Each structure stands twice: as structure tokens, then as C-alpha cells.
Amino acid sequence: MQRELIEYFRNEQTGPGLLLAEAPTGYGKTYQTVQAIYTYLKEGGSRRVLFVTTLLKNLPADDLRRAYERDGRGDQFAREVLVLRSAVDTVLDAVGRYEVPAAFQSDAYLSLETACRKYRRYHDQSGDAATELAGELYDSIRTELEPAFRRELESRLRRKFPEGAQARRAAIRNRKEYQWIAAFYPAVFWTDYKVLLLSVKKLMARKISIVEPGFDCLSDRMMQGSIVCLDEFDATRTDILDSLIEQSVNLRADYLHLFVQVYKGIRMHQASRELTALREKYEAGRATAWRDLMDQAEAIYQDGALQYSMKTVGDALAKGRNFLFHDISYLTVLDAGRTHVRAVRSDEHLPGIWPVSRAGTPDDRRTERGNRHAASIDGAGSFFL
Question: Pseudo-torsion of CA 311, 317, 320, 321, nearest 10°?
């Protein structure tokens, strides 16, 4: 198995593909994969390797370190291998252990430091009360204190080094007053490493870089040309689905979908005489009547061609990363800088969703008959609601 993996890693002409390595429990699949990764890198392999597993504690960092040490290259391990952990965990480890210059000890930092120290104290104690307090502090650090300090730090770095990410990384690497940042957020230098060890949940999340805008780990920025080793493949489905659901729950409200539901509900159901009488009494003397609202809704529905299902079109669609939910709805990952979508009619006069790089470019604000921005349709629907 190890030999086959090494040969697969070496063959850079195969292009994107999938190799399934099946073996019974206890065969040593993870160990064999780690040895193959080390051999590939030792021989000068140029592609970055991502090793992904369901739980952070299952990452084979120790096995990989021992492989380096057996070869007398133990000092290279820390320079070539990075465990990508969550920001809250790296900060918890670093706070109080690395000296932060007084200039950075703002109210946000001091609040974070106090919470981290309390968390460690309660975490090391036994008993339900201590466990509960530690959990509450961890949640507070994760959702409020660490993000607040990070935003402050990012803003400060942008003002100090407006030249961009490269200048900020250089300062963190070379200037003493900034070097502590690498201990708090080691992912700043993720491009320097040959091996990234991460959990499935981290793979599905956005990467926090501090020196540049965050990006999805699944984007081409990290995945293009990389070798991805997915351990316990059959156990990752639940983690991937849970991450997708969590991300979707955190998305902004889908006003367009809500508008269509309201519109169809109004059109399909006849109000009773009692409700009609109450409505007419309420409308008396008011500028906007029920019929006016219905006319507005009908105009939005027809103008947006909302009676049709939308199909995503265009060469920017990342066809390899479409995710299907149990409710038969799709989540699509867009690449190549596409951050907005435009609703258009195809040659068959059916509406489609076209990914574009920026919603405000003149080329995308087309005025031909039938072409509308999805954002403008969505805006009209949310305004109506």
C-alpha cells in the first residue's frame, strides 16, 4: 500500500483524481499513508499534502514527527508540518505563554487574557461546576473575545502595513514586536509548510489568516495542485453534512425563497368572508390596499421569472464541489473570484443564475430584455416583505 501511494503521489501527470485505498481494520492504513507522505517529501516532492481526518486528536502528527526523527531530520518537522487548529485553540495555548508588547495590550486583549487564564484554571479542576464554567468561558472566548481581539489586530496591521499581506508577513517574521503573532495565529505562514494536518470541520471552514482576508479552505487557493489524504473516508460524511448545515443556518435569510412561499400561499388560498370583512375594514382610509400589494407581488414574481427553477450556468461554476442536502437543495462553491450572481434568460428563454466577479461592473448590469440581477429581484422581494 505504501509503495502504491508513493507512486501515485509522484505521478504529477495524472491530474485531479481519486485513489481509494481500502484495507481491513488494523491493517495500518494511517501509518502507511504517513510513511508515504514522508517519503514523497524527502525525495523532493513539490506538491503540498493535506492530511484530513474526522477528529483533531486523530491527526498523525506524532507518527510523522517520528518519521522525521528516525531519519535525523527532526529539526525539519516544525518547519515543514503545520497542524491547522481553530483560532480559539491556538490563542488559548499562546496567551500568557508569549509576551505581548504593551502597545498591543488593549482592553480587548486584557479581557481575552483574563478569560483564558480563568478557562485554564477551571479546565484543570474536577467537578461538574468547574466543567460548566470552563465550557461557558470557552464559548465566550470563541464567539466574542477572540474575534474582537483579532479584528482589532487585523485593523492595526492594515494601517501599519498598507502595502499588503506580504509586508505584514515580513513584519511578523522579522520584527520582534510582531513575532508573537505567529504563536497566536500560526496559520499566518501556512504557505510555508509542505504538510497541513487538519480536521474535516476545519477543511469545511474559512481559514483565518490575520494578514489577508479569510478564504474557504476548499477553495482553489489551498486545494489547487495539492494532494489530499482523507483518513477514515466513510466516517467523514456526517462531519461534512453537519458543517454544511451549520454554514447554511448561519447564512442570511433567503428573502427570495420566503417571498415565493408567501406569494404562492396568497394565490392558492381564498380568504374567508370573516377575514375579507376585517381586511376591508382595516383598509378603509388607507393609501395602500390589498389589491395594490397583490399587484406589486405579481410584478416581482413575473419580472423575476420566479415561476421557473433556476439553473446555474457559466464556466465559473466549480462543478466538482456541489453539495446536496436532504431537502434536495444545493450549496454551490464558486471559484475564480466570483462573489455575486446575476439572473439571466438563456437562449431557450429559461432563467439561469450566472456567477460574476462583481455585481457593479458595467458588463454585468445588462439591460437587454429579460436580464435582471438576482440581487435586484431579491431586493424587491425583501422590500415587499
Answer: -80
